[in-house]
Amino acid sequence: MSTNETVLVLKVGGALMQSPEGLQGLMKTAADMVNAGRKVVLVHGGGYLVDEQLAANGMVSEKVDGLRVSPKEHMPIVVGALAGTSNKVLQGAATAAGATVVGLSLADGNLVDASIKDPRLGMVGQVAPKDGTYLKFILSQGWLPIVSSIAMTTDGELLNVNADDAATVLAKLVHGQLILLSDVPGVLDGNGELLSSLNRAQIAELVAQGVIAKGMKVKVEAALEVAEQMGQPVQVASWRDAAQLAALARGEHIGTQIQP
Ligand SMILES: Nc1ncnc2c1ncn2[C@@H]1O[C@H](COP(=O)(O)OP(=O)(O)O)[C@@H](O)[C@H]1O
Ligand SMILES: CC(=O)N[C@@H](CCC(=O)OP(=O)(O)O)C(=O)O
Questions:
Q1: Which residue puts its alpha carbon closest to atom 15 of ligand 2?
Q2: Is 160 annotated as a binding residue?
Q3: Mutate to test the pocket of ligand 1, among 214, 234, 239, 258 (most ligand atoms within 8 A of CB)
Q4: Ligand 1, atom 23: nearest CA belongs to which residue?
Q5: Residue 1 lies in a domain
Q6: What are the pLDDT digits (tens) for 12-56?
Q7: 158 forms bridges with which residues in the sheet?
Q8: Number of domain units in the chain
Q9: 192-228 tens-digit pLDDT
Q10: Domain range for residue 205?
């Protein structure tokens, strides 16, 4: 059951930054919620910008099952695009919408434990919740934390975490309500129709059929993990429906509900 004290963990994909109206609409909704006393954590990706910046620097990038293979020599660009430009562009839009923002990353304040996920993927990180003190302090001040998915090992090595996984770990950390917002209305079936609800068995079948693939596979698996752990549905929807976000936060549906 969500109350005003329930933390809303909103994840936005990088395509949001390519849409000035989408960005403005979403940030207005988020800022209004925060200023009305709602606790909101915004987690973001920036895959589009990473692609652009790697290419501009003559680097070839590939993804395996929706995860970017991240050789060490790519990391300065990846970190700059995600923890730098993307984070600050979002911070700018949220500030302009009237929120007091703290821009940070998974590497800050002991939030998560991070380690290399699979050496074949290079510096891709896997993360587990650690200490929510810093995030809870920011929220207690009525501020809006905007968190990039760059993490750090205890040895100070920077890691690239998929932003859906970043949202998952923060939702677990604060026992929040997770909403994953993308540039598609939700999970689509083989005919491109919106699926309003999915459970574990249905997801497995659609993944096996190749209907759920790439970034959506990572997203749906992240959503299922949180839904099962929290015993409540996780919503996969579009940031294009920002005006309906408040309704979404009340538990109404606009996209696909991933069921526990
Ligand atoms: N069954 C599916 N339904 C919707 N999108 C899908 C599906 N399978 C693959 N996709 C792809 O997944 C993308 C969303 O994942 P991703 O690109 O990682 O989004 P974001 O950057 O917003 O996190 C869609 O734009 C679409 O290209
Ligand atoms: C390991 C991995 O895949 N990292 C992602 C992090 C950004 C992200 O997830 O961005 P979107 O939400 O816009 O897709 C990447 O480098 O693209």
A1: 47
A2: yes
A3: 214
A4: 13
A5: no
A6: 999 999 999 999 999 999 999 999 999 999 999 999 999 999 999
A7: 152
A8: 1
A9: 999 999 999 999 999 999 999 999 999 999 999 999 9
A10: 8-258
